[in-house]
Amino acid sequence: MDIEAHRDLKLLEAVEADSRVTQRGLSTQLGIALGLTNVYLKRLVRKGYIKCVNVQSNRITYLLTPHGIAEKLRLTYEFMDYSLHLYGEVRQHLRAVIRECAAADRRVAIFGRGEAAELSYLALKEFGLEPLAIFDVEGGGEFLGMPVLPISRHGEVAYDLMIVATLESSGQQAMSLIRDGVPKEKLFPLRQETIPPRKVAELVRTADGRQE
Q1: Which of 11, 51, 99, 122 is the most core-located residue (most Cβ within 10 A)?
Q2: DSSP string across 56-93
Q3: Bridging pattern class, strands 161-164 and 146-150
Q4: Out of 69-73, 121-125, 193-197, least confident range
């Protein structure tokens, strides 16, 4: 499922859940700019999936049309099928890497605390390993009984590999971690993507400059 189809599904779900949702609220839910949310919403209106109703002079209610309900069901099925295939591929790839880590007695940390992090944790346990640490952008709280450390403290932990635990496109997340000083060779994104060498070099120079 491509990113536009996924955003369409999220928009249709949000409108179905709350017809009074605002464009700003949709922007927050989707994690995209307000202007881009407006573009996506207008496209769904043009396609006949969403209907705008003026309930007051300064307020609009969004309603799913019968075509919109049918499209949401189609996209939901497509997303479920995509997710099952992705989960299987990621799990197989993850198990292969963790098997090597177990054989070489390598120390593994996890970045993230969502469903993908749970998958990574279970894969480690399957091979008799425990995560050395759990990191996230901001620290605080616990994940599966372990304290979550801010990524800024990664230098305090002697890990050999950091699993970038997200099932979303992980290239941007990996680049962010490199900017935070995490060595590229220690990163293992669940979604395998290539970061251009020139971009990696720029990020490493930025991280080195900040650490000096």
Answers
A1: 11
A2: ETTEEEEEE-HHHHHHHHHHHHHHHHHHHHHHHHHHHH
A3: unpaired
A4: 193-197
